[in-house]
User: Which sequence fits this backbone?
């Protein structure tokens, strides 16, 4: 299997010819078709605060004009739901809604959107007396009654704890098993209008997880993405590598490029997605060595409406600049913009910066080193980075 080879060998093993697309079932999302012989759908997510209707509608329209087939919005509260009706009235874009822990909001958002995305790992946090199947059934019922599709969105930073513990250091199998479990639940409920995503910040793991899932569930459309890919240059390189390996072998019916960019540059996710697809189908092999050698790796989540302080994007850029001296060291640093992905991703990284409204939590694995203002954090981070390098005897 290609994904058992080194990253360099895998890239070179794919003949630069027009890929042959696999044929999955078709999932209708509003006026957009995913799967079958439909074109690959490029999508993105709004980074404005959902309750800022003017800004959110403006960004939806900008993304739509840039070619987004689907635009995703985060809904975390009933107030977000209340403004969703107004947003729907002001745009004809195909909208997806992103549910987090509050799965019961599915019933309230379904009348205004075309697709509901839920994260299997988040269904364990609220109302633990209810089974996961019952919660999925609630979401599926809301979707079916309002003509919505569903995305089962599995994310490396928030996998079901029981599955994560079962597989130990293997972080790929829990994602695949989670996706398979939820496909089985939806199939058992008679709901087949769904797509699946398996996302990790490591492009190698994205390739392996999606290849493994595609071999087991060839009929299910896949939404591709490298989560928290990072700032544009490295983020595009990681994404390009994963997408090339998957798309060139026929896997992937829709995709999102997740970049850490300010709001004014959000459409870069769309243009980059289309350029990658074009390059893959023209047989252009990525000229990147990411994953072939060891070294510093910055993980940072894409700007989205859950980011609690827009200074997060600038902070990610300052962390990259500050870390330039450490580029030869094998260190993973995660800069996370909100409470949703913050805890999971910073626990996995060697050093983590988990951003809140006014302060940044500095983490070393799951150990909290302190909370500092956005002005204080960089020198504190540099101290921690130097200390880590010294502890490892790498100075």
Assistant:
């Amino acid at each position: 299997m290609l994904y058992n080879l080194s990253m360099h060998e895998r890239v070179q093993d794919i003949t630069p010819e027009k890929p042959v697309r696999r044929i999955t079932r078709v999932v209708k999302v509003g006026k957009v078709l995913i799967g079958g012989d439909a074109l690959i759908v490029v999508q993105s997510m709004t980074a404005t605060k959902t309750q800022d209707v003017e800004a959110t509608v403006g960004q939806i329209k900008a993304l739509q004009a840039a070619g987004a087939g689907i635009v995703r919005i985060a809904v975390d509260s009933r107030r977000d739901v209340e403004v969703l009706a107004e947003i729907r009235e002001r745009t004809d874009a195909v909208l997806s809604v992103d549910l987090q822990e509050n799965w019961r909001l599915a019933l309230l958002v379904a009348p205004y959107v075309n697709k509901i995305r839920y994260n299997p790992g988040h269904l364990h946090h609220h109302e633990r007396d209810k089974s996961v199947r019952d919660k999925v059934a609630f979401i599926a019922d809301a979707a079916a009654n309002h003509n919505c599709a569903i995305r089962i969105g599995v994310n490396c930073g928030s996998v079901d704890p029981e599955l994560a513990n079962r597989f130990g250091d293997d972080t790929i199998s829990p994602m695949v098993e989670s996706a398979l479990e939820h496909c089985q639940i939806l199939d058992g409920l008679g709901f087949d209008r769904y797509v699946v995503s398996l996302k990790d910040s490591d492009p190698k793991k994205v390739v392996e997880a999606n290849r493994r899932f595609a071999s087991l569930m060839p009929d299910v459309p896949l939404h591709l993405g490298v989560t928290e890919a990072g700032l544009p240059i490295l983020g595009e390189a990681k994404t390009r590598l994963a997408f090339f390996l998957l798309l060139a072998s026929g896997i992937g019916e829709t995709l999102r490029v997740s970049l850490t960019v300010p709001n004014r540059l959000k459409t870069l996710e769309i243009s980059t997605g289309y350029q990658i697809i074009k390059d893959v189908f023209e047989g252009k092999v990525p000229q990147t060595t990411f994953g072939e050698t060891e070294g510093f790796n910055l993980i940072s989540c894409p700007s989205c409406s859950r980011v609690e302080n827009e200074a997060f994007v600038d902070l990610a850029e300052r962390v990259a600049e500050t870390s330039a001296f450490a580029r030869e060291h094998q260190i993973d640093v995660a800069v996370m913009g909100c409470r949703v992905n913050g805890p999971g991703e910073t626990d996995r990284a060697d050093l983590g910066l988990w951003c809140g409204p006014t302060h940044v939590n500095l983490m070393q694995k799951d150990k909290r080193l302190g909370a500092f203002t956005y002005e204080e954090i960089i020198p504190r981070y540099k101290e921690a980075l130097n200390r880590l390098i010294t502890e490892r005897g790498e100075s």
Q: What stands out?
A: The chain has 13 helices and 15 strands. The chain has a mean pLDDT of 88. The two ends are 39 Å apart (CA to CA). The domain at 2-281 is CATH 3.20.20.20 (TIM Barrel).
